[in-house]
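Training component of the fellowship. As part of building independent skills, the fellow (R.M.) carried out the full modelling exercise for a liganded target. The chosen ligand was guanosine-5'-diphosphate. The inputs are recorded below so that the supervisory panel can assess the work.
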Amino acid sequence: MKKVIITGITGQDGSLMADYLLSQTDHVVVGGVRRLSVKNHKNIEHLMKNPRFSLIDLDVTDSQNVASVIQKECPDYFINFAANSFVGNSWEMPVNHMITNAMAVLYQLEAIRKYAPSCRYYNAGSSEEFGNIMYSPQDEKHPLRPRSPYGAAKCSARHLVKVWRESYNMYAIQGWLFNHEGIRRGEEFVTRKITTNVARIKKAIDNEEAFDLLELGNLDSLRDWSDSEDFVEGVWLMLNQEEPKEYVLSSNETHSIREFVELAFAAAGIDGEWHGSGLDEEYRQKETGRVLMVINPKFYRPAEVELLWGDSNKARQELGWTPKNSFQNLVDKMVSWDIMESKDG
Ligand code: GDP
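Fellow's submitted model of the complex:
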């Protein structure tokens, strides 16, 4: 039985990692939580009675707190999923992104080096590190060319992880995770924003009520979306190799925001069609001509990553990692969940 510390435990990836480890291994999971006056424990409520699960106060931006937790707990694995993960607000909060997504990694690496040198360390890397891409699909050899303060911070973290791994012979890695979504995804991300709004609009249509439109920014960007449940397994496989090696995890497909909108409305039984172009583009219900979605320029970004398309063949071959859920399954799952939630709400 080993001890795994997971930061960001209340978030999508942290809570799914805990679910995975508690069901697939006999390890003990300690979830690091930041003290908040209003608790956000929805994703981990179901774990609170599990004897192999506990919480500890951990603020990744406090180097002394991080050091004392690692010294006291002496974990076998440390998985850092605590991050400011929203690219869209990284232009407004660049310092926060640098501190939470890069400096925090340095604090963890230093504390592990001093107090738990055999602890295996994983930091969440991102396809946003590839940014202004040079070729497609992107694999492990693609250069780091970030386009956002978020991407720049993740690249800094990657360099730190590599330097600590090579300087101190630590098992420290940072995989490149392409976009990964699901029913625990934050509602500011485009997929969950679409599925929650589709559920709200469907409810209004069914009840013959008026509704606010779904408002989006750039519909043309292309993303490689996977189910986050598949990714936590990939991360665990990455952490349990003989040698510390880093891989891309991705679906190996790419889809536009426009396509996600179409599939999400279709999953709710609403047939739609596109009208207009540019800022005047709209998605309307076929049957009634009712407008469902419009463009709002405020959701455009100062610099955009137009295309993300991963090549995870190396992870599939060398780790034996096989994602189980398709893109269509993912959209269906998210929409039906949000429809169910909107009925309850
Ligand atoms: P990211 O790939 O990590 O930035 O994930 P997001 O889900 O935040 O954004 C994916 C893409 O959707 C980006 O290219 C955004 O510009 C685009 N997008 C278009 N409209 C929206 C919107 O209303 N919200 C968000 N978050 N993204 C949008």
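The panel noted the following from the submitted structure. The mean pLDDT is 97. DSSP finds nine helices and 17 strands in the chain.
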